Amino acid sequence: MSFDRKIKIAPSILSADFANFGAEIRAIEAEGADWVHVDVMDGHFVPNLTFGPMAVKAFRPHVKTVMDVHLMIAPVDPYIDAYADAGADVLTAHVEAGPHIHRTLQAIRGAGMKAGAALNPGTPAEAVAHLLDLTDLICVMTVNPGFGGQKFIDMTAKIARLRQMIGDRPVHIEIDGGVDPKTAPLVARAGADVLVAGSAVFRGGSVDKPEVYGQNIREIRAAAEGVWA
Ligand SMILES: O=C(CO)[C@@H](O)[C@H](O)COP(=O)(O)O
Known about the structure:
By secondary structure, the protein is an alpha/beta fold. It has one domain: TIM Barrel, CATH 3.20.20.70. Helices cover 31% and strands 18% of the residues. The protein has eight helices and eight strands. The chain has an eight-stranded parallel β-sheet with strand order 1-8-7-6-5-4-3-2. Strand 4, helix 4 and strand 5 form a beta-alpha-beta unit. The protein is globular. The mean pLDDT is 97. Bound molecules: 5-O-phosphono-D-xylulose. 5-O-phosphono-D-xylulose binds next to strand 2, strand 8 and helix 7. 5-O-phosphono-D-xylulose (5SP) binds next to strand 2, strand 8 and helix 7. Its cofactor is Fe(2+); Mn(2+); a divalent metal cation; Co(2+). GO terms for molecular function: D-ribulose-phosphate 3-epimerase activity; metal ion binding. Pathway: Carbohydrate degradation. It catalyses: D-ribulose 5-phosphate = D-xylulose 5-phosphate.
């Protein structure tokens, strides 16, 4: 997985048909997704439950791009090897999920994955100030995690601060929650390069109407890239 700061659209399969993940993943990739974002929720760190490492391992053969796994679980450390075995390319843990995020990021890299650190809306950019050399991606939550389809919370000041703190390190800034063609330019202008979008990608489409996914992905990408025009 090479590093660049081009805009990447990462559809969240939280908004896909849960009875048809393989076909949904193949459809979004065929329609232009750069990464596939997989939301793991434990019903404890967040008030919702999705799936665990066995399901993620079953997704792996369908993902030809980058499998970006966002853990909304606590604790994280006992499960790192299971997600490495499942084939995650990027494994992101929340800084709020435990007292030892530094150790967690080291363990994620040690298991051969790219390491991400996620920040809830109430957590300041400074929470990752001493983690930047251990981190490949900072995920800025623009909703309170747990559900798709929520209203975007403006975190542009935090994103801009992170971009300044990161400097020339090869660290992605990923935005997660409420990303659509209206909010994408705001976060891209502030310095984000990976845009997770669930409802705004899957809305109106299906595996039988995948061209809608393609249109939705293109609209988000064009809106984000438009800030550089
Ligand atoms: O992690 C989460 C929610 O906790 C996200 O990945 C959502 O799935 C994004 O969904 P939309 O806000 O784009 O519908």
